[in-house]
C-alpha cells in the first residue's frame, strides 16, 4: 500500500531567513535609487535594473512567507517566481525596443555612479546567499536573482563607459538585451527545477 503522507515540511533555516531579510531590504532601497536614477538619466539599463530590484524584493518576501511549508508549496511558489523572471526578461526587451526607437542617449555619469552603487549592494546580497545556492528550487531562485543582478550591474557600468566614450545609446541597449537574456535563462532554470520538485512531491503523496 502506497504511503499517503507528504514529506514533512523542512524546518526553516534561521540563517537563510536572516539572509533573505537582508537581501529584501537591500533590493527595496536600490529599487528606489535606480528607479529615479534611470528616469533622470534616460537609461533603459538602469530602468530595467530598477524593475529587477523590485522583482527580486518581491521574490525574497514570498520566499520568507513559504519557509517551513511542504516541498510541493515551496516548488509551486518557485514556479511562479520562475515565470515572473522570464516575464521580466520579455518586458525588458520591449522597453529596450522603445528606447531604441526614441533614440535619446542616456546620461553616462549618472549611469556609472548608480551602477557602481548597485554592484556593491548586489555583491553583498550574493555573498550572503551563496551558501544556499544548491538548496531547493526556492533557495536556488533567490541565489540566481542576486547573481544575475551583480552581473547586470557590471554590464551597466561598462555601458556607462561606452555611452560616455561614444555618445551613443547603443551600449545601453546592448546591456538591456543582456539583462533580458539573464532573466529568461534564469527563469527557465527555476521553472525546470520547480516543476520537477512538484512532480516528485505529487508522486510521493500518491
From TrEMBL:
> Could you tell me the superkingdom of the organism this chain comes from?
Bacteria
Q: What topology in the membrane does the UniProt record assign?
A: Multi-pass membrane protein
GO MF terms, alphabetically ordered: zinc ion transmembrane transporter activity
GO terms for cellular component: plasma membrane
Q: Where is the Cation efflux protein transmembrane domain?
A: 20-194
- Keywords of this entry: Ion transport, Membrane, Transmembrane, Transmembrane helix, Transport, Zinc, Zinc transport
What transmembrane ranges does the database entry give?
20-41, 53-72, 79-97, 109-130, 150-167, 173-191
Q: Where in the cell is it found?
A: Membrane
Keyword Zinc part of the UniProt annotation = yes
**Stored PANTHER family:** CATION EFFLUX PROTEIN/ ZINC TRANSPORTER, RE54080P-RELATED
Q: What is this protein called?
A: Cation efflux protein transmembrane domain-containing protein
